[in-house]
Specification:
Catalytic activity: (6S)-NADPHX + ADP = AMP + phosphate + NADPH + H(+); (6R)-NADHX = (6S)-NADHX; (6R)-NADPHX = (6S)-NADPHX; (6S)-NADHX + ADP = AMP + phosphate + NADH + H(+)
Shape: elongated
Radius of gyration: 26 Å
Number of helices: 18
Bound molecules: ligand NAX, adenosine-5'-diphosphate, potassium ion
Distance between the termini: 29 Å
Number of strands: 18
EC number: 4.2.1.136, 5.1.99.6
CATH superfamily of the largest domain: Ribokinase
Low-confidence stretches: none
Keywords: ATP-binding, Isomerase, Lyase, Metal-binding, Multifunctional enzyme, NAD, NADP, Nucleotide-binding, Potassium
Helix content: 40-55%
Mean pLDDT: 96
Subunit structure: Homotetramer.
CATH architecture of the largest domain: 3-Layer(aba) Sandwich
CATH class of the largest domain: Alpha Beta
Pfam families: Carb_kinase, YjeF_N
CATH topology of the largest domain: UDP-N-acetylmuramoyl-L-alanine:D-glutamate ligase
Strand content: 15-25%
């Protein structure tokens, strides 16, 4: 699913209004009707008090239409106009008049006014600011946001939590409404997925308001949301007359004394993702544990006992996964530099190999084109430097990826893969995966996909999706705290099966 920038959404509105020959007022009515239907379905006439806080722009207009529809259905509402500006949008004004005709006169809130009492069992609808926010809200509006937050009432934001910009991180966390849920129009917004802005609405849902499909499908966007539909397009079925040679040979290079487990996890994940053959290249201390515990993998050992001192092998791997548990011993750093001088095999680079690249920038020029780099945020900072906010981080990551022609997988709650100026936002995964070794599993999975012939970008996007899906499957049995990297590997099979599972509700519809 595409993620549109705010100006593209405004353009989609305009096109829709023109092509469907409707007024903006009709579009607002349609949007707010979707909000009403959502609430009505859940509340079924429940007399709970609903406080609707409406700004003076079109977001506020949506709130006023919703108030009118709730009133007509007999809901217990209180409506407030948050008058943060003298200006009013036309559709706001039209709908204020319509509401007044239904004998609902909103309380106008201005600076210095007493704030309404809200009980924690009430519902707040936040329609104060929408996509039009262009500067931080005034102090008294921030005080209102804090008042809403203190009430602990369920807060439903319209389109976007008020105070959240679409293109930058707010400098003051208090200046954003903390939504329990956001109902966003037509398309998800990028800020829902970034670590410093996603925290304002952990739950969100898209409401289809019938914007012009042609516009939506032809517009180019900088970001895309990756779900099952998107990755299914990449999936390559296993062929009947194939053999292990068909699916490539992965070489996993890494490990040091005390960190052989990382290689074990990556090699095992690689096998579970379908690599035809997997060999691990480890220091000698890794030989026995790997041969004992992972019989499917072959093992080549370095001359040194405890760390990699020279990367030297006589096989011809299809792809190499590099860096997990490898450490940064001087000999290892030299070995990596010498290896990169001669290597032509596609690479997936993680962990200590990334840190070595950060400290030896000249190594970056030696990477084969479209190498996949999988940093967590700290490793990313070492690679690309410090950033000021998520948006600058993304721009810096795009430049880095372009400069070195690499696929950059920025791991996190919503892992973001960057290549060729575009970002792919993953939707699977859960906080149970915030545990040691899960990154090693991802390295193994992406390596295993490249081994089978997936191009690096697709392997990265698909691998990240499947990794998160494996986590989501396993967490149902383990709970968040007990999910481990080994368990995650057990979930990879389920993640593949789930790609082709028919949803229960689809089956129910057919019955
Ligand atoms: N396609 C869609 O997504 C649709 C969107 N609609 C609604 O329209 C909204 C956008 O409406 P608007 O463009 O009117 O934007 P807002 O409703 O966010 O209004 C912002 C208004 O406040 C002013 N302003 C911005 N920041 C301010 C600040 N800090 N202090 C004081 N004033 C400030 C702006 O100049 C503007 O007049 C969307 O978020 C959505 O709720 C719907 O009405 C119809 C369809
Ligand atoms: N809160 C979370 N939600 C979803 N995925 C997460 C979360 N925390 C971590 N992950 C995923 O777990 C993995 C952790 O990788 P990493 O930090 O490299 O761990 P390690 O080095 O211990 O293997 C990444 O793929 C990341 O996206
Ligand atoms: K809002």
């Amino acid at each position: 699913m595409k993620i549109f920038a705010a100006e593209q959404i405004y353009a989609a509105d305009k096109t829709t209004i023109k092509k469907q020959n409707i007024t903006s007022d009709v579009l607002m009515e349609r949007a707010a009707t979707r909000l009403f239907e959502w609430l009505h379905l859940r509340l079924q006439g429940n007399p709970v008090k609903i406080h609707l806080f409406c700004g003076i722009g079109n977001n506020g207009g949506d709130g006023l239409v919703l108030a009118r529809q709730l009133k007509e259905e007999g809901y217990n509402i209180a409506v407030y106009v948050v008058r943060y500006s003298e200006k009013r949008s036309d559709d706001f004004s039209t709908n204020l008049e319509r509401l007044k005709k239904r004998e609902v006169t909103p309380d106008v809130l201005e600076e210095g006014d007493a704030l309404p009492t809200i009980s924690k069992d009430d519902i707040i609808v936040d329609a104060i600011f929408g996509l039009g926010l262009n500067r931080p809200p005034d102090d008294w509006v921030v005080a209102l946001f804090e008042h809403l937050h203190r009430s602990r009432a369920f807060t439903l934001s319209v389109d976007i939590p008020s105070g959240l910009f679409t293109d930058r991180v707010p400098s003051d966390k208090k200046a954003v409404v903390k939504a329990n849920h956001t109902l966003t129009f037509q398309v998800p917004k990028l800020v829902f997925f970034l670590p410093k802005t996603g925290i304002f609405t952990e739950n969100w849902e898209v409401l289809d308001i019938g914007l012009d499909q042609e516009f939506l499908s032809t517009a180019e966007t900088d970001y895309e949301l990756i779900g099952k539909n998107e990755v299914l397009a990449f999936y390559e079925p296993r062929k009947k007359y194939s053999h292990k040679g068909t699916y490539g040979h992965s070489l996993i290079i890494g490990g040091s004394y005390g960190k052989i487990g990382a290689v074990h996890l990556a090699a095992k994940a690689c096998l579970h993702t379908g690599s035809g053959l997997v060999t691990a290249y480890v220091p000698q201390c890794g030989y026995t544990p790997l041969q004992t515990n992972l019989p499917e993998a072959m093992v080549i050992t370095d001359a040194a006992e405890k760390h990699i001192s020279k990367i030297d092998f006589d096989i011809e791997p299809t792809v190499i996964g590099l860096g997990i548990g490898m450490g940064k011993d001087t000999k290892t750093v030299n070995a990596l530099g010498q290896f990169l001088d001669v290597n032509k095999t596609p690479l997936v680079i993680d962990a200590d190999a990334l840190n070595i690249l950060s400290e030896n920038e000249e190594f970056l020029d030696k990477l084969p084109p479209r190498s996949v780099l999988t940093p967590h945020p700290k490793e990313l900072e070492r690679l690309i430097g410090k950033w000021d906010g998520d948006f600058q981080k993304l721009e810096m990551a795009k430049s880095f990826s372009q400069k070195y022609d690499c696929v950059l997988v920025i791991k996190g709650s919503n892992t973001l893969t960057i290549y060729d100026g575009k970002g792919y936002v993953n939707t699977t995964g859960n906080p149970g995966m915030a545990t040691g070794g899960t990154g090693d599993v991802l390295t193994g999975m992406v390596t295993g996909l490249i081994a089978q012939g997936y191009p690096p970008l697709q392997a990265a996007i698909f691998g990240v999706y499947m990794h998160g899906e494996a986590g989501d499957t396993m967490v149902e049995d383990t709970g968040y705290q007990t999910l481990t990297a080994s368990k995650l590997i057990e979930g990879i099979g389920e993640a593949f099966l789930d790609l082709f599972a028919v949803d229960d509700d689809v089956l129910a519809d057919e019955e």
